[in-house]
UniProtKB/TrEMBL annotation:
Domain SMc04008-like stretches: 30-95
Protein name, UniProt field: DUF1244 domain-containing protein
Lineage: Bacteria, Pseudomonadati, Pseudomonadota, Gammaproteobacteria, Oceanospirillales
Entries under InterPro entries matching the protein: SMc04008-like_domain, SMc04008-like_sf
Length: 106
């Protein structure tokens, strides 16, 4: 994508990000813990990254507003409607994933 000008590249990246949010919204059954196990990020991470990007540009964006954007509704509402308790297997897989990351960094 180096051949693209900065504006076009930014527009494409923004469109891809919006598509990611649409995909996550259409797949609410995919839990955050599943995303963390497989990809080491989740919807909350995306929210934090938005807040950080805003801060880097001197734009005020609070975490709850960013989460509402990512989740498509207030987080508390999403959580009560779609979040399920993590299973022992999910928790073990997440712990193993996090340990593997620590081992690689060591």
């Amino acid at each position: 994508m180096q051949h693209l000008d900065v504006t076009t590249r930014t527009e494409l990246e923004a469109a891809a990000f919006r598509r990611l949010l649409e995909h996550l919204d259409a797949n609410k059954d995919v839990q955050n813990i599943d995303l963390m196990i497989l990809a080491d990020f989740c919807r909350n991470c995306l929210s934090k990254w938005l807040v950080a990007a805003a801060g880097e540009r001197g734009v005020e964006l609070d975490y709850e507003t960013a989460r509402e954007y990512v989740y498509g509704m207030p987080y508390s509402e999403w959580k009560s409607l779609y979040q399920t308790p993590a299973s022992p297997e999910q928790l073990a897989a997440l712990e193993a994933r996090q340990q593997a990351r620590k081992d690689v960094k060591a």
